[in-house]
Amino acid sequence: MSALQDFWRWRRRDTVLAIGALTLVALFPLAISNPLDAKLDFAIYAVAYSIFALGLNIVVGFAGLLDLGYVAFYAIGAYSVGWFASDHFAYINHGKGIHIGVSGLASTLAGIHFNFLLLVVAAMIIAAVLGTLIGLPTLRLRGDYIAIVTLAFGEIIGTIAFNGDSIKAGRYTLTEGPTAISPVDQPQIPGFSQLDSATSLRGYFWLGLAMAIIVLIVNRSLRDSRLGRAWIAVREDEVAAASMGVPLVRTKLLAYAVGAALGGAAGAFLGSYTNSISSDQFVFSFSIFILAAVILGGLGSIWGVVLGAVVLAFIERYFIPDVLDKINIQNKIGLHFAFADLGFGIFGFLLVIMMILRPEGLFPERRRKIELTESATADESLYEVRA
User: What is the pTM assigned to this prediction?
Assistant: First the structure.
């Protein structure tokens, strides 16, 4: 009984701390007088990257399946906005367009125009299907071979996006290639006024934060569920998990599908915010960036990957362009370059430092932290015996 009481106190304490932290984060835009401040831009990218990282954490952190093609699901989510919330298909229905759940200016435009909530659902379904397809070739693979297959998948999607203007069906093209699909509809959420990034970024931040909170709840529920325990069992020892009755095929495919669906939702949000869908956005380095956020925060740690995503978003979107480049240290010592051009070099340097000083991540998974502590204690005891 005392153990149950301690567990309840622990869960209640964590819940109160989480609610308090999220409340402070939600009030952050109100502390900034300029609704178009660069700090708000960083904050919007931070919540978007957090959703991406939470999705990838299911695949890499929970199930232990390396995925180097995660940018593909960003592309699927963003192009779902480009296809179903713009005039990309302007001649459909004799130029009158198809409008579902939209009002105002969007309801009068040519093309296909879906409500943002429908776009997110569509992006998640399409990404989940493709995530299952990417999982099928990896069922019998491990280690570096999984990385190669997922890397190839990401490159295939990127190549299709780049050359999509040559893939035609009648007068319609799959994508616009390097030429962006723009503009796209601003999200319309029931109960809220239409978001407008041209006058204020606050609405986008709150929308992204709401999506991130939902994804956090989904991650926590999945981790504590039977499926989550199956993922962790596969991560720790695939052979032992199979011998205990864990269905490996279904378990792995569900990890890929759920992670891909969350990536598609984040891609739809970020595509709406940037208001421009171009193939130049979907490069391999994005997959590495999100994977770096997961590793930096701590594999398998829900709050850890959020922290890692926020840290990397801060460095990429605010610290490098608005702090380092403005200080202009490099020119003062005779070097002529921009720190923004060395962004991934800076991220790599930080990861090397992290691997040396804190290999388990900034905020490691609680169970993993206990295991590392016990392992270190055992090693010390063994050393004393040998001495």
Answer: 0.88
Domains of the chain in sequence order? 39-386 (1.10.3470)
Q: 3-state secondary structure string, the chain?
A: CHHHHHHHHHHHHHHHHHHHHHHHHHHHHHHCCCCCCHHHHHHHHHHHHHHHHHHHHHHHHHCCCCCCCCHHHHHHHHHHHHHHEECCCCCHHHHCCEEECCCHHHHHCCCEEECHHHHHHHHHHHHHHHHHHHHHHHCCCCCHHHHHHHHHHHHHHHHHHHCHHHCEECCEECCCCCCCECCCCCCCCCCCCCCCCCCCCHHHHHHHHHHHHHHHHHHHHHHCCHHHHHHHHHHHCHHHHHHCCCCHHHHHHHHHHHHHHHHHHHHHHHHHHHCCECHHHCCHHHHHHHHHHHHHHCCCCHHHHHHHHHHHHHHHHHHHHHHHHHHCHHHHCCCCCCHHHHHHHHHHHHHHHHHHHCCCCCCCCHHHHHHHHHHHHHHHHHHHHHC
- The pLDDT value recorded for residue 335 is 66
* pLDDT tens sequence across 69-85: 999 999 999 999 999 99
